[in-house]
């Protein structure tokens, strides 16, 4: 037999799931169409949508808002803009070989000895080679998550 607390918790969970399905998830097709049309350079619209769902769920827990649809589209728009900005700022071209990593000034080497600089450059070169050897999907994930 369930306790009154467990019953109340199930009602709240059911209510939350219904809210999400009706007020948020129902807009998925139009949200994806909006993102693809407005941000054609964003390669993974599904990731933007999923991150938007997570953020809207967390925001609802913190404080209620009037329009779930409007908030969802605003969150997704901001996430897509962030991705576009990151692509414009990144000094690393994903399509190229990673030999360019050694050309980037990643660390202030002014106070280091020649040997220390050589070790750092060698580590960067090895990192570039290791990333270049990864399967394309894995390489893209590493670059998107760690290098941008």
Structure overview:
- The protein folds into 2 domains: about 5-90, Orthogonal Bundle (Rna Polymerase Sigma Factor, Chain: A), CATH 1.10.1740; about 100-145, no CATH class.
- The mean pLDDT is about 80.
- With about 150 residues, it is mainly alpha-helical.
- Helix content is about 70%, strand content about 0%.
Give the key terms:
Rna Polymerase Sigma Factor, Chain: A, single chain, 2 domains, mainly alpha, 148 residues, 0% strand
Structure described in brief:
This protein has 148 residues and is an all-alpha fold.
Name the CATH class of the largest domain: Mainly Alpha
Number of helices: 6
> Globular, elongated, flat, extended or rod-shaped: what is the shape?
elongated
Largest beta sheet, briefly? none
- Low-pLDDT residue spans: none
Mean pLDDT: 80
Approximately what portion of the residues adopt beta-strand conformation?
Answer: under 5%
Radius of gyration: 22 Å
Output the CATH topology of the largest domain: Rna Polymerase Sigma Factor, Chain: A
Q: What are the secondary-structure elements, in order, as H or E?
A: HHHHHH
| Number of structural units classed as domains | 2
- Give the beta-strand count: 0
**Oligomeric composition of the shown chains:** single chain
Cα distance, first to last residue? Answer: 52 Å
Helix content: over 70%
List the SSEs and their pairings.
Elements (H helix, E strand, L loop, with lengths): L3 H21 L3 H11 L6 H18 L5 H22 L24 H20 L2 H12 L1
Helix pairs in contact: 3-4
């Amino acid at each position: 037999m369930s306790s009154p607390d467990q019953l109340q918790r199930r009602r709240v969970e059911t209510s939350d799931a219904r809210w999400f399905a009706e007020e948020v998830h129902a807009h998925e097709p139009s949200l994806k169409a909006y993102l693809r049309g407005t941000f054609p350079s964003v390669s993974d619209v599904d990731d933007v949508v999923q991150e938007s769902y997570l953020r809207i769920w967390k925001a609802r827990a913190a404080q209620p808002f009037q329009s779930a649809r409007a908030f969802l589209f605003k969150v997704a728009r901001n996430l897509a803009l962030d991705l576009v900005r990151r692509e414009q700022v990144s000094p690393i071209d994903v399509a190229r070989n990673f030999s360019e990593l050694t050309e980037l000034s990643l660390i202030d080497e002014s106070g280091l000895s020649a040997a220390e600089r050589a070790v750092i450059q060698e580590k960067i070169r090895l990192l570039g080679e290791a990333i270049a050897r990864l399967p394309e999907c894995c390489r893209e994930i590493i670059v998107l998550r760690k290098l941008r």
